[in-house]
Structure formats: structure tokens, C-alpha cells
């Protein structure tokens, strides 16, 4: 790309930089959260007869990356010159007048993930069994996020976005269905460090 092409691209993208950044972060959050839910369900209880590696570090990394992408997704909207949203409108459900229902669904999903995801670090303090029951609601927050992504946004009705969403969302939905159908065996015994 020559200098003229780069300048044209910069001036074309410039007024929409915050919107584009928010869209990209939202898509990244959808993919990361779906992968995190998939890994979490895989490690929560093993499918009968299937064993695999300890995925805690992977699940933790995906969860934290999801929260970072969600923070970028919401906060960059404050800089968007079309929406002109305040921090309160980005953070408080039903405050924004822009697609109120869909925006609020996304905000509720964010707060659900932001509160439930990091509860992992408090599990010993609140009790492992209580934490496990609480952490199950993370899947509900994820589903709300999926609903938000399908109902709002520039790309929500585009074929490429729907295909990408299906690829990201179907595996954890199938695992949720298997979990809810009771096809899982007993939880695996904790692994001990081996040298």
C-alpha cells in the first residue's frame, strides 16, 4: 500500500475507529467466551469414558481475555461520535436509548461474566460447592451475550456473522445440552503433580 492509499484508509476509518474497534472487540469476546464455556464444560465433568488434559489454565486465560475484550467493546463506544454514549449508558442496563433491550442484554451479560468468572479466585473463601453452584450461572450470562450479539449490531444479520456465530456457539451449546441431559459421568478426581 502506498502513502496515498494509507492516507485514504486512515481518513475513511478515522471517524469510525471507535465503532470498528468496538465491533472487533465484541466479535473477539463472542469467540473467546464461547471457547471458554466449551473448555469449562469439558473440564467440569468429563463425558463418560473420555479423559483429557487439565484445562484450568486454558479456561482461566480464555475467561480473562473475554473480560478484556468485553471491556474494550463497551468502553470504546464512549468515543463513538454517532452513539455519543456516556459511561453510565455503557455500564447501567436500560439507561441507553439506543436499542435499549439489546444493549441492556449485553450489559447484563457483561456484569454476569465480570462477577461470576473471577469468582474462581474466591472459591476457597466461599466454599467449593457453593462456588460450583454459583459458577454455573456463567453459562446463562454467556447465553445472554450471544442473544445480545444476534439482536444488536451492524453485523448481526450478515451471513458471515451468522456462520461465524454458529461455529463458535454450537459446540458449547451441545455440551450444555449434554450436561443438562445428564449424560456426564462423575467429576474426575483432582490431578496431582507428577514429576
Any overview of this molecule?
The chain is mostly helical and 195 residues long. The protein has one domain (20-43, 55-180). The chain is 67% helix and 0% strand. It contains nine helices and no strands. Helix 2 runs antiparallel to helix 3 and helix 5 runs antiparallel to helix 8. The longest helix has 28 residues, at 17-44. The protein starts with a helix and ends in a 14-residue tail after the last helix.
Structure keywords:
195 residues; mainly alpha; 0% strand; globular
How are the secondary structure elements laid out?
Elements: H1 3-13, H2 17-44, H3 56-75, H4 87-91, H5 100-116, H6 123-126, H7 128-135, H8 137-151, H9 159-181
What's the multimeric state?
single chain
Q: Give a count of the beta strands, DSSP E runs of length 2 or more.
A: 0
Estimate nothing, just give the exact number of structural domains: 1
> Strand fraction band?
under 5%
Biggest sheet features: none
Task: Please tell me how large the radius of gyration is.
Answer: 19 Å
**Class inferred from helices and paired strands:** mainly alpha
Q: Uncertain spans, ≥5 residues at pLDDT below 50?
A: none
Kindly summarize this structure in a few lines.
This protein is an all-alpha fold and 195 residues long. Helix content is 67%, strand content 0%. It has one domain.
Amino acid at each position: 500500500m502506498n502513502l496515498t492509499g494509507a492516507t485514504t484508509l486512515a481518513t475513511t476509518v478515522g471517524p469510525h475507529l471507535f465503532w470498528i474497534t468496538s465491533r472487533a472487540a465484541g466479535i473477539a469476546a463472542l469467540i473467546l467466551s464461547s471457547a471458554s464455556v466449551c473448555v469449562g464444560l469439558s473440564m467440569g465433568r468429563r463425558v463418560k469414558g473420555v479423559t483429557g488434559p487439565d484445562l484450568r489454565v486454558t479456561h482461566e486465560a480464555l475467561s480473562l481475555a473475554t473480560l478484556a475484550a468485553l471491556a474494550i467493546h463497551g468502553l470504546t463506544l464512549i468515543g463513538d461520535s454517532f452513539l455519543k454514549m456516556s459511561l453510565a449508558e455503557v455500564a447501567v442496563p436500560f439507561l441507553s436509548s439506543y436499542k435499549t433491550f439489546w444493549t441492556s442484554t449485553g450489559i447484563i451479560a457483561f456484569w454476569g461474566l465480570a462477577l461470576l468468572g473471577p469468582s474462581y479466585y474466591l472459591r476457597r473463601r466461599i466454599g467449593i460447592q457453593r462456588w460450583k453452584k454459583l459458577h454455573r450461572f456463567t453459562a446463562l450470562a454467556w447465553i445472554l451475550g450471544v442473544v445480545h450479539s444476534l439482536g444488536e449490531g451492524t453485523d448481526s444479520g450478515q451471513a458471515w456473522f451468522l456462520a461465524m456465530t454458529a461455529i463458535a456457539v454450537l459446540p458449547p451449546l451441545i455440551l450444555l445440552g449434554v450436561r443438562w441431559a445428564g449424560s456426564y459421568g462423575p467429576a474426575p478426581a483432582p490431578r496431582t503433580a507428577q514429576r
